[in-house]
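Hi Q.,

Before the meeting this afternoon, I wanted you to have the beta-D-galactopyranuronic acid prediction in hand. No need to reply - just skim if you have a minute. The sequence and ligand are here:
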Amino acid sequence: MSKTLRLIALAILAVLPISAFGQANPYELPDPLRMEDGRLVRSKRQWIKERRPELMEMFRSRMFGREPGTAPDLHFEVLEESPDAFGGLATRRQVKISFDKDENYYLVLLMYIPNNRKGPVPAFLGANFKGNHATTDDPAVMMPSKEKLATYQPGYVVPDRNANGHRWSYEYILSHGYAVATFCYHDVDPDYHDGFHNGVHKLMDGDNPRDNESWGSISAWAWGLSRCLDYLETVKAIDSRKVAVIGHSRLGKTSLWAGATDQRFALVISNDSGCSGAAIARRKHGETVEAICRSFPHWFCANYSSYGGKEETMPWDQHELIALIAPRPVYVASASEDDWADPVGEYFSLVGAAPVYRLFGLDGITSTTVPEIENPVVVGRMGHHIRRGAHNVLIYDWERYVSFADRFLK
Ligand code: GTR
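Predicted structure with the ligand bound:
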């Protein structure tokens, strides 16, 4: 079957009997291996030198915006460290990662490093929603400072300690030999639309006027993940060539974009990233481009909203965001009740990216039958599961991520 026919077949199958997840718009995916000038990509070299940069340009100019280079004065200060975390399982370290000389712009990274290690260990890195203190009941984790809180959305209410602890299975991760690091995403760019005067946009853009391709918040959070990786590169206990970047929901969109923009990330995990993350936009199932741009215009560059209701005119689709991770391992997870994120569309972005992995001589997920709930699938460097239940990150998800990472990072 020709490539075009295969893509059409995939499109038709994709709207067939997966009634549990509802119906979707019929669609035809752009071929990730077709250059804008019509040429077909035939080699790894051509992908790396020509097609990948073309796609990066597409995502930058039309979706996430153009991220700047590194911070003007990146420096690190260990604020606290103790080897006694979780009854001696891990060393906790809290680090201020500052972006400017005067330390007006910084994030606080919370790290746990397993004590039982022989050499440098691989790590998971991901941003969190509610603050480091909300990821655990560890009482030594610092609350956000008053000074930091003053930069968050007016009226922001500090979540309770451990409010999101169920999302961070620290002891499980650590006991499997991984370090784990996280920061609150508001530290990098508070998640509300104030015209980009807050967060690192202000620092990095200065007085430069914004245009339709200027970076949005997802791009800023991804930039923050890269600055954390800069720090991890200085930590002897961590093998910085083995850092998996992970995120849930809007932060799953962010981990995918971080994996695309920063190829130092060795493995990329999208947990329920949905619309503008792993989900195929053309399916228009659950959240659409129009809906997301209406609710969260600040997440993207201004150009993105012009595709609202016109997804079929997008010169790309989200399988090409997955393809930008190739040849590195990528995992896409969904939850059965998370219809808003379109689990079927999330699955098909893996299938749509598989031809690019193939170009690297790697197997990928190619079955056009969406796997059953809680029937995880790993093929080559692609992993997938649909957890039973709602939009969340739970131990079931972490168990799959750790076992997937074991294949590549151990
Ligand atoms: C929803 C949004 C989704 C997803 C989610 C989240 O309101 O529509 O795209 O990002 O928020 O981040 O929890």
